[in-house]
Each structure stands twice: as C-alpha cells, then as structure tokens.
Amino acid sequence: MHDTCKTEAAVPVNPAFKEQANIQHEHLYTLAAHDPQAYWNLQAQKLSWFTPYHAVMDGTFAHARWFAGGTLNLAYNCLDRHMPYAADRIALYCADELGGMRTVTYSQLLEEVQKLANGLKSLGVSKGDRVAIYMPMISEAVVAMLACARIGAIHTVVFAGFSAQALADRIQDASCSVVITADGSLRKGKMLAIKNTVDCALERCPEVKHTVVVQHSSLACSMDLERDIWYHDLLADVDAVCAPEPMQSEDAAFILYTSGTTGKPKGIIHAVGGYAVGAASSMELVFDVKADDIYWCTADVGWITGHTYVVYGPLLLGMSQLIYEGALSHPHQAITWQLIDQYKVSILYTAPTAVRMFSQWGDALPHNYDLSSLRLLGSVGEPLNPQAWHWYYKHIGRERCPIVDTWWQTETGSIMISSLPSIHAMKPGCVGKPLPGITVELVDDLRMSVQQGTGYLTITTPWPSMMRGIWADEARFRATYFPNDRYDRYVSGDAAHVDETHDIMIVGRVDDVLNVSGHRIGTAEVESAIVEYIAVAEAAVVGKPDAIKGQALVAFVLLKDGYAATEELAVGIKQQVVASIGALARPDEIIFCADLPKTRSGKIMRRLLKDIVQGNTLSDVTTLANQDALALVAQQWQHAQQELR
Ligand code: WT7
Q1: Exposed, middle or buried by CB within 10 Å (0-12, 13-18, 19+), for 332?
Q2: Whose CA is nearest to atom 17 of ligand 1?
Q3: Which of 379, 494, 503 is the pocket-test mutation for ligand 1 (most atoms within 8 Å of CB)?
Q4: Global confidence as pTM
Q5: Can you list the domains of the chain with their CATH numbers?
Q6: Per residue in 150-184, pLDDT tens?
Q7: Residues 494, 432, 508, CA angle at the centre, nearest 5°?
C-alpha cells in the first residue's frame, strides 16, 4: 500500500492530569494481554446481572457469544441500580437553541421510562419487536430508547435529518411496528415538522400500527386517530412501575443502520450483554470518569456515538451530562463555549468537523468564556488532523487538557483505539493504541502483517461489543467483515499507519464509503438516488477533500439523450438526493459529462475520477476503454473549478 504518512512528535500529558487520574490502567493492559477472558470478566462484573453467565466467551470469531447464560437489562443497569445512591442526581441537563433549559434526575428518568415502557406494552409491543425512533435531541429520545430496552423491544433510531424515503426503507427493513417521534425538531433556528416526514414515510409502511408523538412545538400536527397517540396521553393513564425484562446476554438490544460499499444501508445488530460491557468499560477507561464530572458529547442519538456515549455509556456509569438540541452554530458561534461555561462541563467529546468549524471562526471567541471546568477533550468520527488538534489543544484545552482521539465504528459498538491520558503521551493526528482487550493488526495486500507502515486495519480477536450481524443479511455480514475464508479477523474497511512507537494514525476508508462531516455516506447510495432522477442516465460519486467537512461529494452525471445540462437540472438532482436520503448527502458539485471513463467490461472507473478530483496524477489506465471520455471529464472538471473561483 502506498505510504506517505509521517506521525508528529508526541505531546506529553499535563502531569496534574496524571496525578489526579482515577484509574491506573497499566495493570489492565497486562491482564488483558495475558488472560483476555479474565479481563472481560472483570469489566462485566461491574454491571448488575439477574442471573450469572456460565462462560465469558464462546463460539467462533464471526459469531462469538459473550456472557452466555447470563441475563440482565440495559435500562435496569442505566437507572434502577443507581437509585440507592443517586436518585436525585441530575442525569440530563437539556439545553436548546432558544435558550431553554431543563433538568432530569435519575429518579425522574426512571419513572418516565417505566411509564413509556408500559405505554408501549399497551400498544402491543413486546420483547423482540422492533420500534423505530425518529426524534430530536430531547430527553424523550433517551426515554424512548431506555423504554424499549426495559421491555426487550429492539430500537432502531433513525437520525431525524434523514428523509421520509430513507426512514421508510429502514422501517421496512426492520419491520418496525411502532414509531416514536415528535411534532417538531429544532435545527438552526427553525422548527422542522418531522411528524410530517413520518406521515409521509408511513404511506409506504402499512406494518406500522402506531406512532407515539411527543408534543414539543407549537406546530400544527395532524394526528391519525387510529394510529397516532400523543406521548403525554399515553403516559397519563399507565402504571408507573414496569419490571425490567430479563434479557439473555446475546439477545438483540438494537439495530442501527449505517452505509456500506454497495446497496442499501446495513442494519447493524448489537447484543445486550456484550454491548453493555463494551460501553461501560470504554467510557470509564477513555474518559477517566469521576463522580463530579459534567460530560457533554455533541453527537445526535441517531448515530452510534449517541447510542454508546450519550445514552448507554454515561447512564451505565451514573454520570451527569448535557444534551443540546440544535446546531453548534446556533443561536451564535460561541454557543458551545457559552454552554461549557454555564454548565461547568468537564469533558467535551465532539467531532473534527466541529473543531475545524470553530477554528475557522477565529481564535478569540472561546477566550471570551471561562473554560476552566474542562479537564479532558475527545474527538471521534474522522481524522483529527494535526492542525485542528493543535487548535483544539491550545484554544479549548488551554494546553492543560489532554485530547483523546477515539477510533471505532457503528459495527464495533464502542471505542477500540485511543490513547489513555493517564499513561500515554498524545501524538497529534494519531488515535494512539488499542484499548486493553482489543487486538489490532495492519495487513498488506497479501495479508502479511505490517509492523511499521500503512495497511488495512483489522481486529484479530473478538470483543464483547462487536456487531452480531446485519439484520436479515448473514451473507453480506460475512462478505463485508470476514472476507477471508478462515474468518480469523474482522476487517474494518479503514486503512491506517503504525509508527515506531506503535501509535496508529487512521488514513481513511479503503472502500467506496465517504466521510462527510463525520457522517458515513456510501457513494452507491447517492448514485442510486441520482439515477432516480428522470433526466439522468448514469452517475458516479467521489469524495473531494474539504477543509471543514473532511470530504465533499462530487457527482459526475451523464444525462439521457434529449436533456441539456442546466443549472436547474443540477438543482433538481440535488433535491432528488435530499428527498431520497436527506440533506446530509446533498452533492456539493454536479459535473455534467458527455461520457464517463469505463473499463472494457463497462464498469465506471471511479478510481480515475477520484484522481481527477483530488488532483493526483492518474493511476493505472491500462483497463480504460474510452481514453477520450477521461480527457473530456478532466476538462469539464477543470472548467467547473475555474467557475467556482
Ligand atoms: C468510520 C466509522 C464511531 C463513531 C462515529 C463514526 C471513521 C471514526 C475515527 C477517528 C479517524 C475515524 C472511520 C470509521 N472514524 N473515528 N478517531 N479517526 N477516522 O461511526 O459512522 O460507523 O463510521 O468513521 O473511517 O471506519 P461510523
């Protein structure tokens, strides 16, 4: 594999942080290396089990079973077990763009979860049923997830920025019988009528028997009297006590859809016991959690980060945290710093795209606020490039707070690689080392181990929070993650670089998956949305480096005969993508071409389009059938770039 990576010099962690660190982790690495099962047993014992497991791990790698025989409940572990000592502790500080603020204590959260759990039961939901959640970042979203967990229903949260069509696809794939939503969602100063989106999606989903709607705005909201019920009405006349369902450790906890190389998004399945152990142990280790922390993870519950590090991880540990409904740019550019100051946030976990956006707004803004409550900063979702790292470290952490750059995926369930600030130095641009119990290996094209240099990032032993499969698609699960016939390693789809001190730097995806502002978008998904547009014959989507978003989407489009390339058409195509997937997948540029470069067998050569867009010299063209097409596309691209300037 081509290797141009070089890691930066290490930055030592502030000695005061190390002195005050809660957990001394070194012995955990030793234990995990010598006896991984003993290590995971130690972590699992921190949870409450109704009945003990008889084995820590058994089965094969691709179908490992964790804590088999044990029963537990996620909601019980997040709430009930904290009651004796933390009933009045604030679980959630809820803030929004309009300056609203509310608090929810652990006992209030438990009460509401039990009521909604009973409400869902009264609508006919039982263990194993699928419930879709399409909600803004409000406390009821957390309640909805935990209420499902309490009765053993499998939630599938769909980010509320996805379109009606994308929502319908997911509801159908998982055969959900109920949807929990709200009448509105606040984003960039606008209240979006998301119940309308649900109504639109449900025209195609007759299997959905009921929706539960949180009244959150003053928007007019049409209710289908037979199908729809207000959340407050549902909770008004149910019992306030609902016993937690004892779940088998290997029972499915949730499904979360994510993009892949081909076809429709994959429904990633996570299992109750292993997921709980992965979420709680990684939360505690990486963030060095303390009793008085005020934690803020800026992710939405629609993504895996929102599942593991907003809902389950922090609540499993009984933490207090801030959730924010809205964009980090609203109502003003300093809202993030204002909230940290106001709530005395001690741990901030956010995405590189946000850090780059903040830095673009200048160095002065964060200095107008008191950020002295911060003690640890985190990053996730895409590479935190050294420039952004240094800005984050200097202007937000004031060279006092360590940064944890955490690598993981929807599929891994919890953080796999991160430096631990109490023992490691940090390397800007690097994610550090695998957590205890996680074994990572880079391999080259010939599957040989890469000790130093660049290779495919693989994981070589099972871990508790690994995905248990793709919903209703076992063949795709095997082919994607365990492509070699020995099934002896999990293949992540990322390339990485490892240096002389074993620090890992993530290079990026090796498949046709793009990372736009930390959102995973399959090029195939966008292409199929574009070709749905009447005028389009063919489309190829590639990523272009972008200073803020990491990558931007460029679509090369071939029109059907009789259609002319106009600005209106480009707008129409973009709208088509927004309608099929959502605004997060809107192409940044549409390049109309007379032909696309293809192989002799007729496959579009995206690799060459990528070279053009990224300004690289063209890679191997021996299989290219239409040389002229390539030259023309390159010209077209140059032309478009000049117009942009
Ligand atoms: C992909 C997974 C898991 C949380 C959010 C994304 C990229 C994730 C990092 C990081 C560089 C990263 C990878 C990975 N990624 N964290 N710290 N540095 N890249 O979850 O949507 O499943 O995406 O995000 O490419 O494969 P996801």
Answers
A1: exposed
A2: 407
A3: 494
A4: 0.95
A5: 15-485 (3.40.50.12780), 513-644 (3.30.300.30)
A6: 999 999 999 999 999 999 999 999 999 999 999 99
A7: 20
